[in-house]
Amino acid sequence: MSTLRWVVLLVLLGVAAAAVHRTTLTKIESFRHRLMRTGQWAAYKQRRDALRAKRQLFKQFHPDHHKLNKLGVPAQKVENFLDFEDHDHVAHVARKVHKAQKPLKIHAQARKHAILATTSQNVNDYEDVEYVGNITIGTPEQTFQVIMDTGSSNLWIPDMKCGTNGTCGSFCYDNAFLCEALCLTSCCQSNETTSPQRCGGKHFFDSSKSSSYVANGKTFSVQYGTGSCEGFLGVDTVRLGDKGTNQLVIPTTTFGQATAIDSFFEQDSDIDGIIGMAFQSLAEDNVVPPLINAINQHLLDEPLFTVTLFEKGMQDNVPGGVFTYGATYFQYGIDQIVVGSSEHDCTTDYDQYGNQLCPWTTISDTGTSFIGGPQASTDDFADEAGASWDEDDEVYYIDCNAKGADMVITISGTKYTIPAKELIVNAGNGKCYWAFFPMGESDGFAPNWIFGDPFIRQYCHVFDLGESRIGFAPAKAAAGK
Q: Does this UniProt record's set of keywords contain Glycosyltransferase (predicted)?
């Protein structure tokens, strides 16, 4: 490996110094690309945005909208509100339901937690994921293909009960509009238990077949930008990697058994669930993430893991990279980004309260295919590269034969370059994406920038949990070795 440069993480975590294990990643066609290629993206986007709008409407009228179904909202209180397409009537429904409930008191820390969960949604939007890996759970092993996400901290997979009658409550089934606004998609389709495609026809975990399984007794709910999932927690042996490989075996790992999932997770057939690789501070319900659990049990010689991604162009279902353990949302600071002749420096960037945003907080995220940043910056860089934003498809497009512009990132005084050609992604049908996306301005919790696959492919990442630092070294292919 080339010279490794270390960057101190902004998130500190004390871990005990504790064999080298590897999980091979498979490159898949992203959900967005597949829908755009087949002409289904516009319909999906319309449906997605409508659901988000309905849920946002209820947030305005009831701060604890996500708890309404758990409070047992009686169906008879809403069954007479029929005209759900009229926006004024929707607001009327929301007010009526709100008045029917006793006000809930929320502890200040819970409100803070809710804010943190909300700000993380921009990070965890999985429509563009291109790399997945296999894990197994239980004894004997049950296999699942999951997103290995350095930007989140929870592990969940679909349970045998996912989408079956009784897992969502009668309120979700009895009222179509409120179900879409307050319940997960799999709760709003059918209360039949026999559908072979319930919850997208994914691989389900069957705890009755695992001799090492222990019930936890608690429920869980995780929010992402692309949707949500909820269910209950269980404890079992989790193995990172395929059966028959040198797996990292982690006994007594707590994980989510999803009984309801949103439409994105149902429709993306390549993904069974998600395994979060980041710190416990980001985990919903304060669950210990699998990798932190492995470190706490001294299962690794060193509390490290390395991420390497391979450039495979338009090929899918081929080896796309590797996670190496023992030889996570990990923030570090960057000072400057230059694309061509367009330069953005953190010393001139301020938040809405006048505080200087320097250095910019940044994460390297394996769950993100492109590079995300403030819209003012990404738009300027797009102009420099010759790319243009498409509002309908929510991507920057660029001429496939464009010269583009290199991206140079300054981190702790060291410059890291992403060549222009690595920022032009073939979308098929003669179109190409420019590998950036705009984010909202950071409110102090969310990162200012997200560096996804283009940066990780160029620079091998070593996450050192023991010393709270992250290291970058040119990947062999990028270095010409």
A: no
Q: Which domain holds residue 452?
A: 5-18+327-479
Instruction: Name the catalytic one among 64, 125, 128, 149.
Output: 149
Q: What is the reported pTM?
A: 0.58
Q: Quote the CA–CA distance of 456 and 445 in Å, as a whole number.
A: 23
SS3 310: coil
**How many independent structural domains does the chain possess?**
2
169, two tokens: 């409550």
Q: What is the CATH number of the domain that holds 145?
A: 2.40.70.10
Which mean pLDDT values do the consecutive 10-residue runs of the chain (481 residues) have? 49 35 74 80 76 60 45 38 36 37 29 26 50 91 90 91 67 55 60 54 93 95 79 96 87 95 77 86 85 87 68 52 57 82 80 72 80 90 95 92 93 89 90 89 63 87 72 66 44
Residue 236: closest CA among 372, 141, 160, 347? 141
What is the Cα–Cα distance from 150 to 364, expressed in whole angstroms? 7
| Phi–psi pair at 166, nearest 5 degrees | 100, -10
The sign of the dihedral angle between the CA atoms of 33, 35, 37, 43 is negative
Does the active-site annotation cover 351? no
Please state, in angstroms and rounded to a whole number, the distance separating the CA atoms of residues 471 and 481. Answer: 19
Domain membership flag for residue 33: yes
d(CA 481, CA 477): 6
Residue 308: name the closest of 475, 81, 126, 96 by CA: 475
Among 64, 125, 349, 365, the one annotated catalytic: 365
Q: How many Å apart are CA 19 and CA 33, to the nearest integer?
A: 38
Residue 97's Cα: distance from chain center in Å?
32
Using left for φ > 0, alpha for ψ between -120 and 50, and beta otherwise, residue 126 falls in alpha
